Amino acid sequence: MTETQPTTIRLHNNDNVVVARDEIAQGYNVASEAVAANAMIPAGHKIATLAIAKDAPVRKYDQIIGFATADIKPGDHVHTHNVVVKDFDRDYMFGADVTPVDYVPEHQRATFQGIRRADGRIATRNYIGVLTSVNCSATAARMIADAFRGDALADFPNVDGVVALTHDYGCGGCAGIGLNYIQRTISGYAKHPNFAANLLVGLGCEANQIGAMMEAEKLSASDKLHAFTIQDTGGTEKTVARGIGLIKEMLADANRVQRETIPASELILGMECGGSDAYSGISANPGLGAAADLLVRHGGTACLAETPEIYGAEHLLTRRAVSREVGEKLVAHIKWWENYTAAMGAEMNNNPSPGNKAGGLTTILEKSLGAAAKGGTTNLVDVYPYAEKITEKGFVFMDTPGYDPASITGMIAGGANVACFTTGRGSVFGSKPSPCLKLATNTTMFDRMEGDMDINCGQIVDGAATIDEMGQQIFDLILATASGAPSKSEALGIGDDEFVPWTVGAIL
What we know:
Layout: E1 8-9, E2 17-20, E3 29-30, E4 35-36, E5 46-48, E6 57-60, E7 63-68, E8 77-78, E9 83-84, E10 111-116, E11 122-123, E12 127-132, H1 138-146, E13 161-165, H2 176-190, E14 195-202, H3 210-216, E15 225-229, H4 230-233, H5 236-254, E16 260-263, E17 268-273, H6 284-297, E18 301-304, H7 314-318, H8 324-343, H9 354-358, H10 364-372, E19 380-384, E20 394-398, H11 404-413, E21 418-423, E22 436-440, H12 443-448, E23 455-456, H13 458-462, H14 467-482, H15 488-491
Parallel strand pairs: 12-13, 12-14, 14-15, 17-18, 17-21, 18-20, 19-20, 21-22, 22-23
Antiparallel strand pairs: 1-2, 2-5, 3-4, 5-8, 6-7, 7-9, 10-11, 10-16
Helix pairs in contact: 1-5, 2-11, 6-14
């Protein structure tokens, strides 16, 4: 067989592997690389274009993604059977790649139709929230929110819904960093501009006491934040009735909002990837990176996260850090994760997932290099602990786990008012109260799951769009979504159960 059209994707001239655009049959001649496949190469998987000696590095993106465990011949399938991760030096070169940002002149900057709260905060949605301090109050919270389903909000068209965000933490002697994280996360949601008002419901005897949390996080009770416990209220039925009554009092005020023209600089974009495949680092992630660059150029904020999934690529970010201090913050989180996983009997290299590997990702280094592409090319201006309030404009990073719900929960707690989620295998994630756009990495999956996918970044792989063109499409859809256009996950009603605070430390 001979090649009649490009069947592989070369990412850099220095690479010794290329990626199969479609399945390559054994014996197929990849003319553009002057190799014939020695075995069947699944779509998205790698084929060697040069001989790679045992223990020599395998290169993709002009970066090391692993080391050969045996001699690899040109045309061989390169994957988990013949590649492993080993330690190697990474030069952090703090700030070496910092360049001036090409900002769009203010009078030419993009806008969207958003909601301006009385205190100046900018919202993209208008929910009422029922938050919980502990798992023990989860059922009562859901019962309160359920009372406002169906036609219950028909007279309040400007209210997007009443949502109960529950979790399985808060009791059991949680303390230390775990208690700090849950308190910071809940308070971040309570302060989030996409909530017009909130109830905070507890049990009463939990470790995460509502009063202590409000004091620690500087939350104050008001007509827009009511806090109470089941025990003090007199049981579940009375608590549910009280919650329903309070929300009925809140609805008229919440409904008074009007959307107005807001500069795109008020957007904080949370960026996530999940259910990744080998196309993630080729199409959707760099496409989202181009959109992030556009948002930064228009004065906004783009937040990358998932510390375990930039492991091995962190040196590409430290080189973009505006100061050594910012770069060292990122390195400190990497080292914390190395110690944390070691203490748990695991390692940072225990990644990708089975689905990632089936999609062609071989090592955490390969996955991280693709994941980091979501961060675009602008300078790294700050690094935040989990769920901490994001205050800087520009490209920032937040320390989160790679677990998608926990990661996006942290970014929303930090203030993200819109999110983008790239996926190759097909995630169906939603993230109330902030809308989440799903970006498909390949056309096959997009066509199969079009009801869940908002944009087909597989157009890049297909040759139908460039990375910059896709970035513009994503940026335009972010603005439209921030203006009120529903995402696919919102249209399906997804997003009530994806509130997952990061559980860290011992539960006693």
